[in-house]
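QA checklist item 7 of 12: single-chain prediction sanity check.
[x] sequence parsed
[x] length recorded as 170
[x] structure emitted
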Amino acid sequence: MYDWGGAPLAQPTPGGFTDAELPNADDSDQALLNLHDPLNCTVVGGRVSADGLAIAKGARRRAVDARSRERISEGFDFGGFKFSLSREAQTSLMVMDGLRDDALFVYPVSYGMKDDVDGTFSVAGSAEVHMMYMTAVGTVRWWLDTGNTLKAAINAAADATALAGVVDDR
């Protein structure tokens, strides 16, 4: 449910236009709806019309982003163990990869597993650090890229039926 100037608006429906009464509005008023996405609205005779398909597309894009974040938060597998992909973990892996050939970087290096459930993982050398880092980067890129592909399909949907055909089964 959205409101404009304290007046309740009907819940938008995918694929159509949603109308709502706006008390004291005239044709010169602009309807401003905060829906996290650009939205074309018109005010005619005190009624606002909003494109329900645009609203549904915005909600679906946000759901895809949330699913991508959820899958990234599950971490990545390397060497038979699960590791975190939190921002801190990604930063730590990036720093380790950047320093992997530095003479002062002493191996083996202990690296904590996801949620510290299984203790630490011993990284034997430079090549293993780089493989671990590239596995982490590849995992993040996979979830982001598949999400971007889904969002492009959402944006291209011409109607509610086409939009319903875009399924995030990741």
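[x] summary fact logged: The beta strands are 2-4, 7-9, 17-21, 41-44, 47-51, 76-78, 81-83, 109-112, 120-123.
[ ] second reviewer sign-off
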